[in-house]
Amino acid sequence: MPDLVPDPIPQDHDGERGRGRPRDPRKDIAIRDAAWEVLADKGYEGLTFEAVAEIAGCSRSTLYRRFASKNELIAAMLYETSREVEPELPEGTPPRAMLLAHVDAFIAYMSGKRGRGIVSLTEAIARSPELQAMTQAHKRNEREYYFIAFRGLVPGLSETHMSFVFDTLVGMILHHTAVEPRDLAREQRIALVDSIIYLLGHPLNAATAT
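Given the sequence above, the corresponding structure tokens read:
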């Protein structure tokens, strides 16, 4: 995958970095999964360190050592979940195959309670400029992976049009994974990809159907 400028990795607020026992990655995963569960069940307003700590089986001080705020916790959730499902694509992967791999990864990202959590997060964005700025920065980084494939299919596209196509794809996947959850069969995922290729202005033919 081409090198991209990554999201800033959320800062570690463990007081004295490099001293004491190293962080337990299993605890980090438990905190992230618990945060998704709380966000899905109680919404953005109900996402408190106390609620997350109770489900994760840790103390609130454990979370305060890691995150300075709720929004910083959310930034870590988004970033780490994206990296967990990110596909590894060999150099020279055709653009359409790239899109299929990213669609598979996004569907995995939205699986379980994470899809409902994203819906809750989307509803809260309008009420929080800080949250909006943070999620928009994350979105810009993630969509560049799709833009690479878009440009490979139709060179010279404007960023405005690519953003429209990307947002359309996100909306379709969000609907099928979170609003009205269903298991998307392979042919349905292919249909999603081909529909956005059509929106790009690329004439689908035998050559692009490989």
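The longest helix spans residues 129-153. Try to locate this feature in the token string yourself.
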